[in-house]
């Protein structure tokens, strides 16, 4: 008997069986034979196909569809599983990378109006299915289905690359890539077809729909990993399995890795439920979704729920997977107290705000050096003047004048230092613009919890977001008069930034700003519910709350860049960019942990998220976050030195494209190194700064750079050891506030030499 044991699965939904199961079994056996899928006994035989029982799988996962629809869906799953096994036999075992890519590229042609003549069972199957499927759906659905099918096919190369270099992914990379190659988003699109629940095009890209689809996909894949670990990893030598990923990343045995994987599966199921119950109603109200449209969305959600329940029932019955432990109870369900109170459940609602939060921070891994911009001092002065002119130091109705920002606080933040390292070669005006964006984003990030957080005023935050979006017209014609510092800042920044951009680039950049401000409302909603986020949802939203998408967008849209959009959409380019963003976001969470958790009562910090998920002390959460940071940086280095050059060679990129890609890579390196240096030198996260709180506003003197420079100098003298415009920075301590005593001693000393 196998030593591998399945876990105690959370099964909140009962599986139901479609009455047309026998019809589907008979039909799909004949279809597979006609397509030639039973011609090679090393891949499939009639007996092996019958034992895997895809007719049963689809009858479980689509319990309410008609017999013809069930036949169609079952054929799709027979095709996709055959593709997986055919690709394994033909290319994974032989490590034929060039042949594999050529094979995958040909499959794209069978999702078009004029396909070539098919030459193998996979091509014949896709050509047949395409003609039987797409006529019933809209052009918008067809585009989405082409995208997820292409992901499913092309990302098989990701698995092949990992086998080729004997590499196991880090957890963040694994979840993201498994979502593509595992095919569950593709399954979700088929749910729309089978359930008659095509999503309204205007809602398909919204956060609630996206999270429903992605949490569904992750749950499907994690469940499959648990059932298939023994076959894939121990028998076939596969490296793409979350249990193996957890073994390697956490340095634990298989039993513990199974437990972590199952906890993540449970958390993702809770995320699905939370989104359906709390975010869909808000989406319906915010977007004035009509009752028929609501019906489509809810039918889609129910279809995903049925798929989860049926998928587990099929895994338990199919010959393909491990059979022991973790069995379902009455009605095919299994819901225990541990499932409800553990990962993703009540545990995520029990955090006690403002608890003492002393931790020891590691030395972050950083292989890149920082260069400063020669206009740094001028940018410091100009940014202080700009923030004052925009009204960042003014009072907000109902909030004391010093409750958000003041001059002393801004000077201590030294955002120009961060911008200087990010853009060392920028002109004086470009550096000031970059610094102003950092100031606006940081001010907004502080503004939302101060103004809307305590009052749980989600409506007010959403109304402000609508106004902010109106301040970014694509035609640059103002239609709204700004009334607050935050609005004035964006109204000033938008034409300065978007003016030189073509309309298409303006729209891309505006979307990145909209995603950032919408993510701040997501944080407020979690705060109102006292809910520590699910780890996957947190990491993906963190790129938005930190403004990473916006920053990367500015680099991507630089006028001297000639990088085709097709390159931006490749696995290599997306993986590189996401890895850089995650490094910076997690870095910020380490440095801001004490500030956010103890002084601000925040919930959105990776250390808290990971320690809550793993049910471990904060210090262990720090170790996990540092490990994720390091693994993402290692991934960035591998992509930029190995994968990206190989991609450019494969597509025969010209010299101008190669130079633009190299410049973009340099931007990302500068971005990460500058953000680390800024965290080490600024005063935003120091205990003495946090204890001091806002100070009385200074009397505003005459405007002008000379006055601003003098003001910065006096602020520097007030801070003592830390001086601006000089090369030496004194030691800073990240430790416990007065009164905590020996329980939380100062734990990290950061020093910096010459700049």
What does this entry show, briefly?
By secondary structure, the chain is mainly α. It is built from 31 helices and two strands. The longest helix has 33 residues, at 254-286.
Write a structural description.
This protein has 755 residues and is mainly alpha-helical. It is built from 31 helices and two strands. The protein has helices at residues 21-35, 46-52, 54-61, 67-92, 97-108, 121-133, 139-154, 156-164, 171-181, 184-194, 207-235, 242-250, 254-286, 291-317, 337-341, 376-390, 407-413, 415-422, 428-453, 458-470, 485-498, 503-528, 535-545, 548-556, 565-568, 571-599, 606-614, 618-650, 655-681, 687-692, 705-719, and strands at residues 729-734, 748-752. The protein has a two-stranded antiparallel ribbon with strand order 1-2. The longest helix has 33 residues, at 254-286. The chain is globular. The relative contact order is 0.09.
Features:
755 residues; mainly alpha; two-stranded antiparallel ribbon; disordered C terminus
**What characteristic shape results from the CA principal axes?**
globular
- What is the oligomer described by this structure? single chain
Question: Span between N and C termini?
Answer: 63 Å
Separate helix tally: 31
């Amino acid at each position: 008997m196998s030593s591998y044991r399945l876990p105690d699965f959370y099964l909140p939904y009962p599986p139901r069986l479609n009455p047309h199961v026998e019809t589907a079994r008979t039909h799909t056996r004949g279809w597979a034979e006609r397509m030639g899928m039973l011609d090679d006994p090393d891949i499939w035989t009639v007996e092996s196909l019958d034992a895997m029982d895809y007719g049963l799988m689809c009858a479980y996962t689509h319990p309410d569809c008609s017999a013809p629809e069930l036949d169609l869906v079952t054929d799709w799953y027979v095709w996709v599983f055959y593709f997986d096994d055919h690709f394994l036999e033909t290319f994974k075992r032989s490590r034929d990378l060039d042949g594999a890519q050529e094979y995958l590229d040909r499959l794209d042609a069978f999702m078009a109006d004029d396909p070539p003549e098919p030459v193998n069972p996979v091509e014949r199957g896709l050509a047949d299915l395409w003609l039987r499927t797409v006529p019933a759906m809209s052009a918008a659905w067809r585009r989405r289905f082409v995208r997820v099918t292409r992901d499913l096919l092309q990302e098989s190369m990701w698995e092949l690359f990992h086998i080729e270099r004997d590499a196991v992914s880090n957890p963040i990379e694994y979840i993201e890539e498994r979502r593509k190659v595992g095919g569950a988003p593709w399954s979700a699109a088929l749910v729309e077809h089978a359930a008659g629940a095509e999503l309204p095009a205007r809602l398909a890209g919204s956060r609630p729909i996206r999270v429903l689809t992605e949490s569904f996909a992750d749950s499907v894949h994690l469940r499959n990993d648990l059932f298939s670990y023994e076959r894939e990893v121990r028998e076939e030598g596969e490296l793409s399995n979350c249990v193996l990923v957890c073994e390697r990343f956490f340095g634990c045995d298989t039993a513990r890795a199974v437990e972590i994987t199952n906890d993540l599966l449970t958390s993702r199921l809770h995320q699905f439920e939370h989104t359906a119950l709390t975010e869909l109603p808000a989406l319906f109200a915010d977007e004035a979704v009509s009752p028929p449209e609501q019906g489509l969305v809810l039918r889609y959600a129910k279809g995903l729920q049925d798929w989860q329940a049926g998928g587990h029932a099929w895994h338990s019955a199919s010959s393909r997977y491990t059979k022991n432990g973790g069995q379902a109870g009455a009605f095919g369900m299994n819901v225990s107290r541990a499932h409800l109170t553990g990962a993703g459940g009540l545990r995520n609602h029990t955090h006690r705000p403002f608890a003492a939060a002393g931790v020891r921070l590691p030395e972050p891994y950083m292989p890149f050096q920082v260069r400063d911009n020669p206009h740094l001092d001028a940018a410091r002065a100009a940014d202080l003047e700009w923030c004052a002119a925009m009204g960042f130091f003014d009072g907000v109705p109902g909030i004391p004048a010093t409750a958000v920002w003041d001059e002393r606080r801004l000077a201590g933040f030294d955002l120009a230092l961060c911008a200087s390292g990010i853009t060392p070669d920028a002109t004086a005006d470009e550096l000031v613009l970059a610094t102003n964006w950092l100031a606006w984003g940081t001010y907004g990030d502080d503004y939302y919890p101060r103004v809307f957080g305590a009052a749980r005023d989600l409506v007010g935050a959403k109304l402000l977001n609508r106004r902010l979006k109106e301040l970014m017209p694509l035609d640059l014609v103002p239609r709204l008069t700004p009334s607050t510092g935050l609005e004035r800042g964006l109204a000033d920044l938008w034409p300065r930034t978007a003016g030189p951009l073509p309309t298409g680039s303006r729209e891309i950049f505006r979307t990145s700003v909209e995603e950032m401000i919408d993510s701040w409302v997501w944080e407020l909603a979690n705060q109102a519910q006292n809910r520590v986020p699910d780890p996957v949802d947190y990491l993906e939203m963190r790129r938005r709350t930190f403004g990473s998408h916006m920053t990367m967008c500015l680099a991507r849209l630089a006028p001297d860049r000639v990088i085709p959009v097709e390159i931006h959409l490749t696995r290599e380019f997306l993986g590189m960019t996401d890895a850089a963003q995650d490094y910076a976001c997690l870095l910020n969470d380490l440095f801001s942990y004490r500030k956010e958790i103890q002084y601000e009562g925040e919930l959105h910090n990776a250390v808290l998220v990971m320690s809550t998920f793993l049910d471990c002390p904060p210090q262990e959460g720090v170790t996990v976050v540092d490990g994720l940071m390091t693994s993402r940086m290692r991934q960035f280095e591998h992509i930029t030195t190995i994968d990206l050059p190989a991609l450019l060679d494969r597509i025969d990129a010209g010299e101008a494209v190669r130079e633009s890609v190299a410049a973009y890579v340099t931007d990302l390196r500068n971005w990460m190194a500058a953000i680390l240096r800024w965290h080490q030198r600024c005063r935003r996260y120091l205990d003495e700064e946090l204890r001091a709180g806002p100070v009385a506003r200074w009397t505003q003197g005459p405007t002008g750079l000379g006055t601003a420079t003098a003001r910065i100098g006096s602020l520097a003298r007030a801070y003592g050891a830390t001086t601006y415009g000089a090369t030496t920075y004194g030691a800073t301590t990240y430790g416990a506030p007065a009164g905590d005593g020996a329980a939380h001693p100062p734990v990290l000393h950061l020093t910096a030499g010459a700049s």
